[in-house]
Amino acid sequence: MKPIGIRREKVRLPNARKLPVGVILDTATRSTIAAAITNIGTIAGFVVCCFGTIASAEKSGIEGYLLKEVEGWAVYVQETLLKQEPEDAARALVLLSEQGRKVIEVIPPKIVRKLQTVPLWLSLPHEDRRPRAEFHQDKGWLINNGMIPEKEKGIEFTNTAILDREVIRMPMLLLHELSHAFHNLVLGFEQPDILRLYQKAKENGSYDLVERKNREPQMANAMSNHKEYFAECTEAFFGENDFYPFNNKELKQHDPAMHALLEQLWSE
Questions:
Q1: pTM, two decimal places
Q2: Are residues 244 and 123 located together in one domain of the fold?
Q3: Residue 105, CA distances (Å) to 76, 143, 175 in order
Q4: Cβ pair 193, 182 in contact under 8 A
Q5: Among 101, 172, 173, 226, which has the minimal tally of Cβ within 10 Å of its Cβ?
Q6: Is the peptide bond between 86 and the residue preceding it cis, with omega within 30 degrees of 0?
Q7: Coil, strand, or helix at residue 139?
Q8: For the chain, how many structural domains are there in total?
Q9: Does a cis peptide bond (omega within 30 degrees of 0) precede residue 245?
Q10: What is the full DSSP assignment across 95-147?
């Protein structure tokens, strides 16, 4: 999925500093970043990459999108987003870099390399859909919903305006979406053990009323379907989830069979 043979140069952004995930950029930093991105003008300028680094953006071969690389992932950035909301685009790229580094830190290297073949897309929200992050599994669905088929098997972020808040709410947001890709492309959505444990959890009601950060107890998102069950539990296994079980220790206590399965499925 990654184009081959594209040369990318990196230069240092003046007065750059490392920014933590979820950061709200100060006025001076936003102005510097916005100025850098505004220079894109003819699509030959620069796009902010990660933590004060600027990477050259290249034409992607897909109309309306530029290509850049973030932590080993190909990222397709909508030109309209860059022109209309340059600060949102800049902040989203910084946050994607931090999210990518989290994935690299916790996932075995061989699996990381598989995950890095999944392209990421940054776009403005689609007219009739709320802003979100989502894995596009089906080309037919994309076409029927007025989207380009090239996004199939990729992850699209249309929530760039609120992404700084979303990664606070969901610290492992990118891993959640990559889990859907891994489930589909490597394990298969019909992986029998995941289906079995999901059905067991539904029947015993263990996720029917759980804690959620900063909200009233409710049914866990993991019970939406077996795909969300796998992705939500993966968040807890490797980091932090916004629904109980929140972390690895709690997952092992609450759902020991799923904990053991994740240890197996995500190993090299």
A1: 0.81
A2: no
A3: 23, 35, 11
A4: no
A5: 101
A6: no
A7: helix
A8: 2
A9: yes
A10: HHHHHHHHHHHHS-HHHHHHHTTS-EEE-PPPTTS-S-EEE---HHHHHHTT-
110 in Cβ contact with 157 (< 8 Å): no
Residues 25 and 114 both lie in one domain: yes
Residues 6+ apart with CB under 8 A from 257: 197, 200
Closest listed residue to residue 265, CA positions, set 228, 237, 225: 237
Residue 184 placed within a domain: no
Residues 64 and 157 in one domain: yes
Bin 24: left if φ > 0, else alpha if -120 < ψ < 50, else beta.
beta
Based on the domain organization, do 208 and 146 belong to the same domain? Answer: no
Looking at residue 77, its amino acid is V
pLDDT of residue 26: 54
What proportion of the chain, given as a percentage, has pLDDT over 90? Answer: 74
pLDDT tens track for 45-70: 434 443 333 345 677 689 999 999 99
* Cα separation, 134 vs 196, whole angstroms: 24
The edge-to-edge listing of strands for the beta sheet with 53-56 is: 10-12, 53-56, 46-48
218-261 tens-digit pLDDT: 999 999 999 999 999 999 999 999 999 999 999 999 999 999 99
- In a domain? residue 4: no
